[in-house]
Specification:
- By secondary structure, this protein is α/β, with parallel strands linked by helices.
- The chain has two domains: about 170 residues, Alpha-Beta Complex (Aspartate Aminotransferase, domain 1), CATH 3.90.1150; about 230 residues, 3-Layer(aba) Sandwich (Aspartate Aminotransferase, domain 2).
- The chain has 17 helices and twelve strands.
- The strands form three sheets. Strands 1-9-8-5-4-2-3 form a seven-stranded mixed β-sheet, with helices on both faces.
- Helix 6 crosses helix 10.
Length: about 450
Amino acid sequence: MSKNMTRRAFITALSTGAAAAATANVVRPIESVTALASKHKKLALFGGTPVAPDKQWPKWPYVDEKIVAKVADTVRTGKWCRKDVKGGNVDTFEQAYAELLGARGCVCTGSGTQALHTVVEALGIGPGDEVITSPYTDMGTIASILSARALPVLADIDKYSFQIDPEDVERKITRHTKAIMPIHIMGQACELDKILDIARRHNLKVIEDACQAHLAEYRGQKCGTIGDAGCFSFQSSKVLACGEGGGIVSNNPKLLEDCYTVQNHGTDRLGRSVTIGPKYRMNELEAAILLGHLELALEQNEKRNENARYLYKKFEGFEPLVPQKLYEGGEHGSFYLYTWSFRDEHWDGISREAFLKAVAAEGIKLSPYIKNGLHKEPWTDNILGRREYRAMYTPARLEQFKDELYLPGVDWVCDHMVMLWAGGPLLAGKKDMDDLVNAIMKVYENREQLRGLEI
């Protein structure tokens, strides 16, 4: 639906028998033409009838009586630490999750950040080393590298997939680079083929930040199982959740054992204290929730993908709001978030903020995601002033680090991102998806009403 094809024009085309030509690359209407024509002339923001008044999405995080019972049973045992019980909830979940993903094994931690940091330490990455990643992420990604006193080197992202740009990754490699930490942002796979090729050619490790990408796939393999290791978050907003919690998967048995030892304060499975490590163990109560939730994980994942495919089809050819680009082989995602880029040039001067306010009045709450990339946060100045970083890295290297914080792709995405928190909403029915589409289309058709709106 271009600037020259509003929904009103679309309705006219239908009435004149020209529907096939008019809708070649246009979102199809959901409601009847009569309903659209009569209801959708005035935005709800200015007193019109909302498309979806009092919209209620499925609640998240997911809770049912089986989960409650599993937690209650665990509480009654009095054995809440994984060290208290062999073959308990944590052990059981690790085995089940590894099998579900097709990985050799899994080691659980207290958070996704802890999982990432554990892998960094287990790979021997530390002071003087560099890890390339994206700043379009949660701070936990960066923190996992900083906690090892390595240098997070930031690469730009693709404007339309929101994923790390492999070409910029390769430009940022130095003789001190030890690993690449790509992020499957929004729960969809990044362009892993190119990342893995770069890693092979430069002898680098690949640590997949799959914290948002539970059960997402890339070319038939589950995200997190493709690089040297993959890390997941089970924080309460995630599509497999227990409040906090993290997991590491790998097909490398030695790396898995090293990860276990690091997260167990440097103590291996034989009880020998052999290295430096924090205490990052997952507890039995968290694992109880995960085990209860795991039974429905595949079913919920398929439902989210079904609804996501439906929305992609509905927004096909709609240039004002374009869904996240998916790479070939990465069409089956987690859909932790369902996201679009807001294309200013198709909104006749109406801002993203005005659009969000108007669509919220229609009953559909969308929002931006990350306000600004992490390359614009104070930690970058903090490490430049820290004595350990000044000791480990030359002044020229730290100056180069600062100069490379110009990342226009990240900045553009931060200014143009629109998202739906998808964990619960993408478990809703088709009628709810139709409400979402219709609310957006109503606002677009009547966008001139938003002119001059103060936000």
